[in-house]
């Protein structure tokens, strides 16, 4: 789960991480009033969308007068920003953050992720902040330092100093402030079940402060039951309506841009299904895992969500019955096809628990279902069906 920059900074304040004062605005007038409330003579008007690269897309502007705040707020609010993380469709800006300005001395990068190779939460830091860290990693990897945190010891003062010295800080007061900054970031990451905590840039100012100028936090969706306060930060306007609807029914659904709908049980099998569809020249329209505890009603809901995508030209149902029995899936498929009046070709591959009963239900349904013997056969048939060659 993602949150906006202003929400991330609000959480960071709770952990003693220095951020600039800011006001959230939904309208141009609110942006101007926010700037007046902050005072000063320099403000930054920032688009709030769940994507990086806002500055390059024109979503971050420095205003040196209230007239400029009004002008930039008018230009950004309602605009569609296209960045390297939004895809070509972009994201519409509905919210702004108006933030006070500061005198930047140097920009740095700081981030926390779980390194699956080592099984440890790992700090990444660099003296090259304010640019895409991927570019730094590719062109000058020596400028990124990594420090893995021992899960038994946790964050120690030595880790803080290693990071501070590693990015080139020399002033003792700044080293102390940076160490405190890193400590707070780690504590928040662990206590809030983050998957990513990224500060780009983290800056030192002319007055010697260490501040998070930008912030990106992602949270583990599976841990949200522990954090109702994080769940409340969810912005439905930033998420696919179909994905939100699927989540309400316990379905794992991700919308893609292909034309072959996929209904599969098990995340691994779903990934394999998508891969083999592409191998046969097709494009999946979604990732959809109905899980092991799906019911007939859940399967019907999955069909409803798949068919709500106008790009879907064929559907592949690929079930390996273990916990999820094939006859339950078959009943759901038949019920959905009849209730929804499925008009696109339907390819079904069943294997596993109660497979004979499942196939019997499908065969006796009088529906025009294309049966497949194995996954390769299913992929070949559904790609042909989507092209109109079936």
Task: Report what the structure shows.
The protein has 390 residues and is of the alpha+beta class. The protein contains 13 helices and 18 strands. Strands 7, 8, 9, 10, 11 and 12 form a six-stranded antiparallel sheet that branches. Strands 1-6-2-3 form a four-stranded antiparallel sheet, covered by helices on one side.
Oligomer class: single chain
Q: What is the strand content?
A: 15-25%
Question: Residue share in helices?
Answer: 25-40%
Head-to-tail CA distance between termini = 40 Å
- Uncertain residue segments: none
Beta strands, count: 18
Provide a count of the helices: 13
Output the radius of gyration: 25 Å
Average of pLDDT: 90
Structural class, from helix and strand content? alpha+beta
What profile does the largest beta sheet have?
6 strands, antiparallel
Shape: elongated
How do the strands and helices of this protein lay out in sequence?
Blueprint: H1 5-14, E1 22-25, H2 28-38, E2 43-47, E3 60-63, H3 66-76, E4 80-81, E5 91-92, E6 96-100, E7 104-115, E8 120-126, H4 133-139, E9 144-148, H5 157-166, H6 172-191, E10 194-205, E11 210-212, E12 216-219, H7 228-231, H8 241-248, E13 252-255, E14 260-264, H9 267-279, E15 286-289, H10 296-307, E16 314-321, H11 326-340, E17 346-352, H12 355-363, E18 369-371, H13 375-386
Parallel strand pairs: 14-16, 16-17, 17-18
Antiparallel strand pairs: 1-6, 2-3, 2-6, 4-5, 7-8, 7-10, 8-9, 10-11, 10-12, 13-15
Helix pairs in contact: 2-3, 5-6, 10-11, 11-12
